[in-house]
Amino acid sequence: MVDALSSPLRPHLLLPLLHQMSLDSSPAHDRVFSRAILALDRADHHQDALFVFRRLIPLSNCPSSPLSLLSLLRILLSRGLLRSALHLLLSPGSDTSRLGTQGINLLIDVACRLRRPDLALHAFAAIRELCCYPDRDTYRILMKGLCDAGLLDDAVHLLYSMLWRISRKGCDADVVVYRTLLESLCAAGRIELAEEILGKVLKKGLRSPRARQAFQRPVLSVAGNLEEMKRIIDEALVVRGVRSLASYNAMITDLYAESEFAHAGKMLDEMRQKAFRPLVSMYEAKIAALCREGRVEDGIRVLEVEMVANDCVPTTRSYNLLMKGLCVKGESTRAMRYLDRMDRQLGCVAQKESYEILVDGFCAEGLFLDAANVLEKMHRRKYWPECKIFGRVIQGLCSIGRIYESLLWLEEMLSQGKMPEASVWSSLVYVLFGMPTIEKDPYMDVLLHDLLTVD
């Protein structure tokens, strides 16, 4: 029943149902509350989502609510409400400990983004007391936070606490963690310490005893500038450490995120020479970086040429990244072709995000009829748009005088339990009553009467 009332959302029925479930004597399920919170947030009913977590869950017989807490935390973080997320994590009676390592990672991430490395270190020290165990994301988030705050000595101590993992598993995907510290040390002028740490990491990552006997650590002081030091560090971590698909993937993805196309391309070629097959995620990172730089044509070449040549099948995310780049560049009509291409590709289905990208793109270009057509396709696929998507299309149709279509979409929006913003109502009122030159349609009067008298 909760799922049925959540899609499309009917808050006037959903909230009483959740309240009745809270008062029921049978145990309530945390996953039901979690789905309801996410559905309320998607429809911009933020206060109702908070009400469910703060009031209804404590009234229920739900033994714990880690999933609901995680859903609400992700909502707050996605909206940039860092202090609210931190307060929620540290509030008395919070189920943070039940979230395990994932909850601690969230706490550390929020503390680092708020420039509170002291709180992040305190959370990391308490992780074992909560019967949790730090994973790669824990070290990656904390290492970046410490380096950004300039606490390099604490960052070095954190890396040494990781060395026992290297001795058993090799460098693997942890290379991005070591890279963060080593580059920060070089930027701070502590090159000798960076050389010493790099040598220890590589020596523990080399499995062969013969290789250990002949090992010589890389020399960073011979490099002429910081960029050359970074190149030596990157090549040493992947080439001289234990080669694996995970280490290549982590490093190449990180390089594309920093727009280091030449270095990443060289490492990708070397990876192929070592008989490693590139992953789709590597090409997606490259497409995202190219589109971010405005090089959409190069991104198209990656998807249509490079991926095909290396037997990589594009995913929905690959198309979404390219479509978003085209829409930002003002080529939404061209991006529409990739939506049709997804429909023809086996196993690749356009998701809600794909349609929303196109609607935003067409609205930005003033092609509101095309945006309405995409919204219609989205509706036929049973993907329920957000309030903002409805609002942009309705306001756009009003701006070009398509009043009847705008009222139809308003009716659909209200039927899904979504409330338009004040600006949407203002656009409708202005068009209906502020432009007397528009010829009135008798069907419009009936539809407007139904909308204004809706319960």
Strand percent estimate: under 5%
Helicity, as a percent range: over 70%
* Overall number of strands: 0
Cα distance spanning the termini = 21 Å
> Shape from CA axes?
globular
Organism: Dendrobium nobile
InterPro entries: PPR_rpt, PROP1-like_PPR_dom, TPR-like_helical_dom_sf
Domain PROP1-like PPR: 244-365
Pfam families: PPR, PPR_1, PPR_long
Could you walk me through the main structural features you see in this protein, from its secondary elements to its overall organization?
The chain is mostly helical. 70% of the residues lie in helices and 0% in strands. Helix 18 (280-292) packs antiparallel against helix 19 and helix 20 (316-328) packs antiparallel against helix 21 (332-344). It comes from Dendrobium nobile (Orchid). Keywords: Repeat. Residues 244-365 form the PROP1-like PPR domain. PPR repeats lie at residues 135-165, 174-208, 244-278, 279-314, 315-345, 351-385.
Quick structural summary:
The chain is mostly helical.
Map the helices and strands:
Blueprint: H1 2-6, H2 11-23, H3 30-42, H4 46-59, H5 66-78, H6 82-90, H7 101-113, H8 117-125, H9 136-148, H10 152-160, H11 163-169, H12 175-187, H13 191-205, H14 209-213, H15 226-240, H16 245-257, H17 261-273, H18 280-292, H19 296-309, H20 316-328, H21 332-344, H22 352-364, H23 368-380, H24 387-399, H25 403-415, H26 422-433, H27 442-452
Helix pairs in contact: 2-4, 3-4, 3-5, 5-6, 6-7, 7-8, 7-9, 8-9, 9-10, 9-12, 10-12, 11-13, 12-13, 12-15, 16-17, 16-18, 18-19, 18-20, 19-20, 20-21, 20-22, 21-22, 22-23, 22-24, 23-24, 24-25, 24-26, 25-27
